[in-house]
Design goal:
The complex is a heterodimer. Helix content of chain A is about 35%, strand content about 30%. Chain A is an alpha/beta fold. In chain A, helix 2 packs parallel to helix 3. The radius of gyration of chain B is 26 Å and the shape is elongated. Classes of the chains: A alpha/beta, B alpha/beta. Chains A and B meet through helix 1, strand 1, strand 2, strand 3 and helix 3 of A and helix 1, strand 1, strand 2, strand 6 and helix 3 of B.
Chain lengths: ~110, ~130
C-alpha cells in the first residue's frame, strides 16, 4: 500500500508543475492578393522590445498600445507584424500580447 | 543450577500509519495544487505573458528548441518531415489545432516560417504555448 502511494507521489512530483500556461494564437500570412483597403492595415516592424516601428514611426513597447489605438481611431482594422533579424520569440509574444489588447480585428505575422 | 530461560524481547511493530497519512497528504496536495506539464521537454524555456488562459487539452504539439531542432512526440525530425506532419494532421482533422512549444530565445523569423508552413499545409489553428510571468 505505502509503496504504491510513494510511487504515485513521485510520479506527480516529477510530472506536475505549478506554472500557469497559455496558448497564444499566431496567424501566418496566406498567399493571395490583399483584400480591402491598404489604409486599414498597419505595419509593425519589431527589431527588439525598445525598437518597434509602427508604419515607420518608432515607438517603445510601453507606447505601442497607445500608438495602435490612435491608428484604430483613424480607421486601421488589421496589422501585419514583422520581426526583424535578431528579434526573439519573447519579443514577438510581448508585441502580440499588446496587439490583442487593442481593437484590431486581426494581426498577421510575416517574415 | 537452573539456567534462566533466554528472554527474547519482541520488538514492537513500527507504526506506519502516521507515515502513510503524511504521504497521502502530500499526494493530495500535488493532485489539487498542480497540473500535469503539457510537454515533457525540459530544455525549452517558454516565452512569458502577463496573462494566462487554459491552453486547452488534446492539441498536437511540436517542440522547437533554441538551436533550431524540432521534436514531435519526443522524436527529432527535420523541417521537411515537419511539413509532412502538418499535412498529415490537416488531412486527419484540419479544425483541430497545433500548439508550438517554442523556446523564448528562438529566432522569431524561424518560428514564423514554421507557422506559415503549418498554415500552408492546411492547419488553420496554430497556437504558441506560453507561460504566465511570475
Amino acid at each position: 500500500m505505502i509503496d504504491v502511494v510513494f510511487l504515485l507521489l513521485i510520479f506527480f512530483m516529477l510530472a506536475s508543475t505549478f506554472l500557469k500556461f497559455s496558448a497564444l494564437p499566431v496567424s501566418g500570412a496566406r498567399g493571395g492578393g490583399v483584400s480591402g483597403n491598404l489604409s486599414e492595415i498597419a505595419l509593425i516592424q519589431l527589431r527588439g522590445l525598445d525598437d518597434i516601428r509602427v508604419n515607420n514611426v518608432g515607438v517603445r513597447l510601453d507606447g505601442l498600445q497607445d500608438r495602435i489605438a490612435a491608428l484604430v481611431e483613424k480607421g486601421v482594422t488589421r496589422a501585419v507584424l514583422q520581426p526583424a533579424e535578431g528579434a526573439k520569440v519573447q519579443d514577438l509574444v510581448k508585441a502580440l500580447e499588446i496587439t490583442r489588447k487593442t481593437a484590431l480585428k486581426s494581426v498577421v505575422v510575416v517574415r | 543450577m537452573r539456567l534462566r530461560a533466554a528472554q527474547i524481547k519482541k520488538q514492537p511493530a513500527e507504526n506506519m500509519i502516521p507515515l502513510i497519512n503524511i504521504v497521502f497528504l502530500i499526494l493530495i496536495f500535488f493532485l489539487v495544487a498542480s497540473a500535469l506539464r503539457p510537454f515533457g521537454d525540459r530544455e525549452v524555456r517558454l516565452a512569458e505573458m502577463t496573462e494566462a488562459q487554459a491552453p486547452g487539452a488534446g492539441n498536437r504539439m511540436a517542440v522547437l528548441r533554441q538551436d533550431g531542432s524540432i521534436y514531435v512526440g519526443g522524436i527529432r525530425i527535420g523541417e521537411s518531415e515537419l511539413q509532412s506532419q502538418f499535412a498529415s494532421w490537416a488531412r486527419q482533422d484540419g479544425n483541430r489545432g497545433v500548439t508550438l512549444v517554442a523556446d523564448r530565445d528562438m529566432d522569431a523569423a524561424a518560428l514564423i516560417s514554421i507557422v506559415t508552413q503549418a498554415n500552408a499545409a492546411g492547419v488553420r489553428d496554430v497556437k504558441l504555448l506560453t507561460r504566465k510571468a511570475r
